[in-house]
Amino acid sequence: MSDHLKAPNAAGLLHLRGEALHKGEPIAPPITPASMFHLPGDPEPGLAVYGRNGNPTWEITEAALGFLEDAPALLFPSGMAALSAALMAVLKAGDRLLLPADGYYVSRRFGETFLARFGVTVEARPTARLGEGGFEGVAAVLIESPSNPGLDLVDIAAVTAAVRAAGAVSIVDNTTMTPFGQRPLALGADIVVASDTKAPGGHSDLLMGHVSSQDEGLMARVREWRSMSGAIPSAFDAWLLHRSLETLELRFERMCDNAEAIAARLATHPKVRALRYPGLASDPGQALARAQMRRPGFLIGLTLESREAAERFIATCALITPATSFGGVHTSAERRARWGDDVATGFVRLAVGTEPLEPLWTAIDAALP
Ligand SMILES: *Cc1c(COP(=O)(O)O)cnc(C)c1O
Question: Can you give the residue ranges of every domain in the chain?
Answer without folding.
Answer: 3-245, 248-367
